[in-house]
Design a protein that fits this description.
- With about 325 residues, the protein is an alpha+beta fold.
- It contains five helices and twelve strands.
- It has a three-stranded antiparallel sheet with strand order 1-2-3, with no helix packed on it. A three-stranded antiparallel sheet has the order 4-5-6, with no helix packed on it. It has a three-stranded antiparallel sheet with strand order 7-8-9, with no helix packed on it.
- Helix 2 packs across helix 3 and helix 4 runs antiparallel to helix 5.
- The termini are far apart.
Length: about 325
């Protein structure tokens, strides 16, 4: 027991139960359990049980905090999306067909229908759509997902999805964003484009040809799948500082654009005023010259001045 306490650097016997990690792998602990008294064995195993119980409670508390944080992120992002981009998922186009979502939650489609990707007339309560290569995906108001078209590689196997808040269809795979910030994917996985099971705190997804991209709540971007052209080189991207401040960042950019617009309007107004003053001075000079013309041989010059005056008046009228 003394050697065990020395190994763990504790001075008091009661401090053994305050260790951060179980010490049942320690050789002196194993000897104490084997050769110690029944009371000592009970005390030491009780210490181990207390440590394990405390660890589980800490892990559960951390998991709950992370879950609540993800839910908070998703709620903030949903509020932002509903405010700034209410129509972003109402149309979607693929190579040879186009899909549209009506305000009443029904869906229309036109174009190539070889694999049935346009067979969406029976869909109801749809809140988002995405056109893949030869399949169409729809997100319903209850968080479930429907899909029609080419079922190769399981790209339409979305019937068991629940709590989905966004969908994206690629040519060969389908991606769904869940309300807790995790991501699911089905379909072709030749390049690893469906390996999204470890993603967390995601607020937006997009399915590419052979890769998948996710936007995290801190503004960073993650990607999986093929990378022959560097399409996954997004590791240094920071699209915004935090989902908590996203509205403020958007508002700040709007204010900067508005300020730039006002400055441009002021610059143009000043430029216009200078031009009007210049034309008015030219008109006065020309009129003065016209009034000073006398004699039988001034007709040609008079006509030139009158033409010049007409041109000045025309430009002034346009400016005013």
């Amino acid at each position: 027991l003394g050697k065990l306490m020395a190994d763990l650097q504790v001075r008091e016997r009661t401090a053994l139960g305050n260790q951060e990690k179980p010490f049942d792998h320690n050789g002196n602990y194993q000897k104490a359990i084997r050769f110690g008294s029944e009371t000592l064995r009970a005390e030491l195993t009780g210490d181990i049980d207390a440590i394990v119980t405390r660890q589980k409670r800490i892990e559960q508390e951390q998991d709950e905090r992370q879950r609540q944080e993800r839910l908070r992120f998703m709620e903030i992002f949903r509020q932002w999306r509903s405010r700034y981009a209410p129509a972003q998922n109402m149309i979607s186009a693929s190579d040879r067909f186009t899909v549209g979502m009506k305000a009443d939650g029904t869906v229309v489609a036109v174009g190539n229908n070889v694999t049935g990707q346009c067979d969406v007339s029976g869909w109801k309560d749809i809140v988002a759509i995405s056109a893949g290569g030869s399949h169409t995906v729809g997100l319903k108001a209850d968080g479930t997902v429907v899909a029609v078209g080419d079922k190769s590689d399981g790209r339409c196997d979305v019937g068991t999805w629940r709590d989905i808040v966004a969908v994206s269809a690629g040519p060969y795979h389908t991606v769904g964003l869940k309300s807790d910030g995790t991501v699911v994917a089905v379909g072709g996985n030749r390049s690893g484009q469906c390996r999204v099971g470890t993603w967390r705190d995601i607020v937006a997804v997009s399915a590419g040809y052979y890769h998948t991209v996710g936007l995290r709540s801190d503004g960073t971007v993650v990607a999986v799948g093929g990378n022959p052209s560097g399409q996954r080189n997004v590791g240094d991207w920071r699209l915004f500082q935090s989902v908590d401040t996203l509205e403020e960042e958007q508002e700040e950019r709007r204010k900067r654009r508005e300020e730039a617009r006002k400055q441009e309007e002021q610059r143009r107004a000043e430029q216009k005023a200078r031009r009007i003053a210049q034309l008015q001075q030219q008109r006065a000079d020309v009129q003065s010259e016209l009034a000073s013309l006398k004699g039988l041989f001034t007709g040609k010059r008079r006509r030139e001045i009158e033409a010049q005056l007409a041109q000045i008046e025309k430009e002034l009228k346009g400016l005013n």
